Amino acid sequence: MKKNNEKQMAKADAYIGVDVAKETLDAHRFPENEMRQFENSIEGFQQFLQWIKNEPPTLVLCEATGGYEKQFVIALADADVPFRVVNPARIRDYARSHGILAKTDAIDAKILAKFAAERKLSPQQIPDETQRNLKELIVWRRQLIKARTMHGNQLEHASYRTVIKGTKTLIEQINKQLERIEAELNQLIDDDPHLSNINEILQSIPGVGPETARTLIVECPDLGSGDPAKLCSLIGVVPFNRDSGPFRGQRHIHGGRSLARSALFMAALSAVKSVKSDNIFKQLYGRITAKRPSKVGLIAVAHKILLIAHALVKNNVHWENKLQKIT
């Protein structure tokens, strides 16, 4: 009887780790230690779903692999299969802590499954189609801006006529693409009443312009809900202690969602340069930089902007520079 109960519990708490490659999906089911490989394609997704149909897992865990996991995750969400995508660095750290230095697709899948079982990870929600489209456009926009900067730097040192002409043509083409992206981003947000409202709230905050607002909408779907302290930690605007015994090390920020953090720093920089003396962000920056480096002041302002953005969205109110009204 006891063995039957243990079997039932094992089935009820099954976790599947999936190592996603460009062409394949290596899946490991824990605790049964069953391994399967599928194609990273629509046909492969269907076969995977058929495999787990009779014994649905508690969670399917995979790593963020630069986009190769995207269609697989969408297929899981469409089939109502609980899943989560984790940072690869967390899995490598977990593997090293268990003395596992080898790295193959099969080993990675097994580690993912054990990690999910040990940590009892909760499922995540996949962003809707509008948010996915927004994210793709924002990433593409940043890539184009980097390319334009690179070509601009090349143009400064170019002397041959063909190179100069070709580089100028590339920069013009990039500028046209950026104009189209801006229009598309604005249209996607305007067509969604919920996102449009959040966009207006965010842009009411000093220093927060269209780009920062769009980035926060995409990178922080949990903005306005949940724990604000956890959100700040996820974004990476919370300095972590580096202390040991009597030693007190310098606090540093690290990790987090880099796109959102970069956008917040740009907003902080804009806010502290404001000519308005009653801007609380400027006042905060001034108090901190009177004794600390300017970068510390910018981190504090970025942190404050995110906290206020969270409170404003939660309460569905616009910025008034009166924090006592925000709960």
What global shape is seen? globular
| Mean pLDDT across all amino acids | 86
Please count the beta strands (DSSP E, at least 2 residues each).
Answer: 7
**Poorly predicted ranges:** 4-10, 240-245, 323-327
Give me the strand/helix succession: HEEEHEHEHHHHHHHEEHHH
Residue share in helix: 55-70%
- Structural class comes to alpha/beta
- Total number of distinct structural domains: 3
Percent of residues in beta strands = 5-15%
Strand order of the largest sheet: 3-2-1-4-5
Radius of gyration: 24 Å
Largest sheet: 5 strands, mixed
Number of helices: 13
End-to-end distance: 54 Å
Structure report:
The protein is of the alpha/beta class. The protein folds into three domains: 2-119, Ribonuclease H-like superfamily/Ribonuclease H (Nucleotidyltransferase, domain 5), CATH 3.30.420.10; 129-191; 200-327, no CATH class. Helix content is 58%, strand content 10%. β1 and β2 (24-30) form a beta hairpin. α9 (210-219) packs antiparallel against α11 (258-272) and α12 (280-289) packs antiparallel against α13 (294-315).
